[in-house]
Amino acid sequence: MTDRFVRQPRRLDFLRGEARPPIQQVIRYVDEHRARFGGVEPICRVLCIAPSTYYAARSRPPSARALRDTALLTEIGRVHRANFGVYGVEKVWRQLIREGIEVGRDRVARLMAAHGLRGVRRGKFKRTTISDDTGVRPADLVDRDFTAAAPNRLWLADITYVSTWSGFCYAAFVTDAFSRAIVGWRVSKTLRADLALDALEQAIWTRTRDDRADLANLVHHSDRGVQYLSIRYTERLAEQGAVTSVGSRGDSYDNALAETVNGLYKAELIYRQGPWKTVEHVELATAAWVDWWNQQRLHSACGNIPPAEYEANHYRHQHEASPAA
After folding, report:
1. 101 phi and psi, to 5 degrees?
2. Highest mean pLDDT among 210-224, 245-259, 286-300
3. d(CA 152, CA 132)
4. What SS3 class is residue 252?
5. How far apart (Å, rounded) are the C-alpha atoms in residues 213 and 152?
6. Rg (CA), the chain
7. How confident is the model at residue 19 (pLDDT cuts 50, 70, 90)?
8. Which alpha helices (H) appear in 21-63, and where do they start and end?
9. 258 near 181, Cβ under 8 Å?
10. Are 253 and 139 spatial neighbours (Cβ–Cβ below 8 Å)?
11. Dist CA 164 CA 177 (whole Å)
């Protein structure tokens, strides 16, 4: 073997900083390059390890830690895939704990990094609704306080766009601030008033189909888009006894929670699973994503449990407290 081949491992920065890497990394390197460099011994000579060390490591059974890592990696991959491939270390770790799998967060981080598993990050926000600067507007009753003491006290509404091969389409969402549950949504080819109204109608139906619903104390908050200030939209809210609230003019944070939902929708579904061919494809995928969002996705604002579970806990505690009251 020539000097050119003998020195090749060093030029690959295998021993950068003159530090010997972990033995398992050495084994993998030798296995990958033994054919190229004429066997095990020439590589071991350059790496300053005994060939017997290589052969002993190859024949040694996996350690308990390695076996545990293998089992954990299977569970980590399952959780990651089951959640649209968007969970980062924190949510994967919390989901494993919820399932009774005892593991440290740092270990999850190490295994995810070693196998290229990562979460998603939200992109920049782009406004979709068109502001209506004419006429009298409702007051801003929220003032950036996107919290609620119970379900159906504060809803946030907004619209975002999706690019498809057949043109743009638009998605409207209505979110309950209490649990972050998406209570109404709609996808349409046009940015029309009926788009927002259809999402509102679904939200009203979703929340009034059982006896627990009460929209009399509801505040509906949106930006100043014409879709939300239309007569039909505001009249429909008034029929339910809800109060309309509109964000301050020129305030980029006037509807921040709804914009966060839009951003996560884009990051977790649209950008990851695109490109999209038709509006129908977007609509079907959005239905699956909304169901996952409400039933499975862990939300830090809810104590890292899904919105449906968070609301169920609320109503259970309310029922348990009723006899005592």
Report:
1. -95, 110
2. 286-300
3. 26
4. coil
5. 8
6. 27
7. low
8. 23-33, 40-47, 51-59
9. no
10. no
11. 30
Question: What is the rounded distance in angstroms from the CA atom of residue 266 to the CA atom of residue 254?
Answer: 20
Across residues 76-88, what is the average pLDDT? 96
Tens of pLDDT, residues 121-178? 876 545 555 455 555 567 888 888 999 999 999 999 999 999 999 999 999 999 999 9
d(CA 107, CA 290): 31
Q: What is the mean pLDDT of residues 224-245?
A: 89
H-state helical runs in the chain: 3-6, 8-11, 23-33, 40-47, 51-59, 64-82, 89-98, 105-114, 193-208, 226-229, 231-239, 256-265, 271-273, 279-295, 307-324
Q: Which long-range contacts (CB under 8 A, 24 or more apart) does 183-186 make?
A: 183/155, 183/207, 185/286, 185/290
- Cβ neighbours of residue 140 closer than 8 Å, sequence gap 6 or more: 221, 245, 246, 247, 248, 251, 254
242 contacts 220 by C-beta, under 8 angstroms = yes
The token duo for 96 is 């494993």
**Three-class SS state of 92:** helix
Contacts of 96 (CB under 8 A, 6+ apart): 75, 76, 79, 103, 108
Per-residue model confidence (pLDDT) at position 37: 84
| Residue indicated by tokens 């059974």 | 61
SS3 183: strand
Share of the chain above pLDDT 90, in %: 59
Of 206, 227, 210, the C-alpha closest to 315 is 210
The Cα-based distances of 233 to 92, 134, 177 in angstroms read: 40, 16, 20
